[in-house]
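Troubleshooting entry. Yesterday's outputs looked truncated, so today I'm pasting the complete records for two proteins to confirm everything comes through intact. If either block looks cut off, that's the bug. Protein one:
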Amino acid sequence: MGKMKAKKNLGQNFLIDKNVITKINNSIGAKSDDLIIEIGPGMGALTKELKIKNAHLLCYEIDNDLKNYLEPLIDSKTKIIWGDFLTCDILKAIENIKYHNLYIVGNLPYYITTPIIKRIIDLKLDIEEMVFMVQDEVAERFTAQPKSKDYGSITLFLKYYFELEKLFKVSKNSFNPVPKVESAVIIFKKRIKKPNVIEDKYFKLIKDSFKYKRKTLKNNLNGYDFSKVKEILRKYNIEENVRAEEIPEEVFIDIANNL
């Protein structure tokens, strides 16, 4: 097989570090009666490792030029779907696969990381775990704690659905071509008990709260009844001139439930 040239317009950076590939594979607890969806298998480096688990494996690849690398991996439990994960009918693709737990894995192109994760959430699949390679600063944002510069609405949005943990950093030299940024592997574990709050109301509140990073919560929530917000803040001994990045999840949930 000839050497495959990465396509910039698809955000391709092929993972070539075997140690990293093994670590990612070991992070996924799938067994033979489970289903793994791999997003963007590329040249199949991770796919080959995943096949060792003997789980059902469904891979979504947008680049038809990779057929020579991926088609030899197809068997009774491994299927390649040539198309865009963001637009393919995922539910139809998995409806006839009998599996126990669902896992999703992928080296996500940096420019569509968040849209892919939001698409997965919108599908309302019962996912056991997701393991993704993302840009390191994105991993920091997804797993941030209150009172840190990376903590924001996306942190709280994802935390509503998952328990997130940054597993390890990955050097840019682990890829071909070498990207300009460092990467990290992050795991999303299903949150067994989601917060008791009206989703739409809660998500609107956190989005509005972080609308302008430098403004106080009071200024960002100028369309809300702030006297009710102030009551909740006082309950947690939080000053009213606080910024959203200082407020933990349970306080936002309490605010949403009392507006």
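Protein two, checking that the full record survives here as well:
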Amino acid sequence: MSNPYEIAARRFECIAFLIDPSLDAAQRRAAWRERTAGIGRSTIYRWLKVYRSNGYLGLLPKPRDDRGQARKAGTAGWAGYAIGLLYEQPDRSLTQLRIYLHAEFEDYSLSTTTLRRHLRAHPAYAGIERLRSGKKSKLRDLYEATHPHEGWQLDGKGPFRVTLVDGTRIDVKVLSVLDDHSRAILAAVAAASENIDAAITVTSQAIAKWGLADRFQFDRGSAFDSHAFRGGLAALGVHRNYVIARTPEWQGKIEAYHRSLDRWFVRELRAQEVVDVEHLQQLLEAMLALVYNRHHHREIGTTPEKRLANRISNRRVSQSDIERAFFVETTAKSDPKTGEVRLPTGSFRVPSTAHAGQRSRFRYHPTRGGRAVLVTKDDREIVLQPFTRKPLSSVKTHTDKRGTGQLQKLVDLWKGSERPNAQPGFGLPEVFKMLAALIERDVPNSEREAHAVLAFYRKHGPMAREAFEAACTRSKESLGLGRALTTYLTDLERQISADGNTPDSKEEQP
């Protein structure tokens, strides 16, 4: 039997780093990995608790209650019965096993820890671990397409983090379409996440370039298993191979490609400057075309590019038919005044006032910026245009209609003075700024100057920016620098009086 004081010393070595106040958090984590290998976390904290309460003597092993007595003969039978319970249902916990064993054996007396030890020592326990991991004991069959585009595989790699040249960090996931026969990558997209937009985008690119596949295989991800994605494939006549969830070995070919993608692309990004997502997409496509599709594949004995040999599927569809296949139908109500209807992919405008304010059926492409159509009552489709909000600067300036003649004089007398209308973004603050540039000092530098400029602006304003700037340039050329502000204001008034109009006139100044 081992010396109990040696056992207590080994236990103290395992918890010493938790007691030493000189160690920081990083040193404690490193010591935890080194000194507690193979020991449970609960055991370490139990030793620490007894040490703090009873000191070094608390770490001494306690004598067994059955010391000197022979083991009960039923121990092996208990373990065997527990193994049978686990083969019947591998997910049963130790707590369940103890309850079932107590119900079967009246004299059952093993603790949970002892039962676990007996189970792990049993020669049949390895089979239970395989059952829990989902791995089958029988050999698997291997399936492979006999010609290009007979079957495609789709999956995502990532997410992984990419640092752009401006310091921004983004999470990226690469979605790829792989041809089962040649192992060639037909299309790949670097996206922010594995969503419906990315799944439809990469699939549409592959179909537009290579045609339709007979079969398509992908896992049970939410984007791939969505009604929009699978409905679009069904509309195009592409059969979806059934795949059980959490079985990556069914996607073995594209999983092997992901290992190459990690080695040849993801790791290389650590030494590569990336400008933006568009630049990242270019880097991905260049690597696939020049590295992956041209590398010697040991399984097929040649390169994916040579085995594919640029062969295109005999099932071809147009780009508009591809987009139309992935359309999703919904109902929405448009705004009665503007005709705006908000769909999940953006805002659109109904074609006429007859449809404005009505709840109608719409079909739209689920990718951002995709097409959308309005479905009429007789099932006709009307293409919708995006709804845009115009800037205020595009509002047309209203000017009174004028013509030459005596009647126009009567209109002018009847209306009286014309109501002022300032040019957008040009008022008294901008006049102060231009006068400061004219005399090359701050304006105003006193309350008197401020009132002088204000009186000038109220008398001749509002003014157009271009005309007033031209007048200031002429004053600077004729008077030069070093004059008083009132001198320049007098010259500006002279120019206005000589022209007969304020500087906002559109006619050319003399």
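Both blocks look complete. Sanity check on protein two: Residues 4-19 form the longest helix (16 residues).
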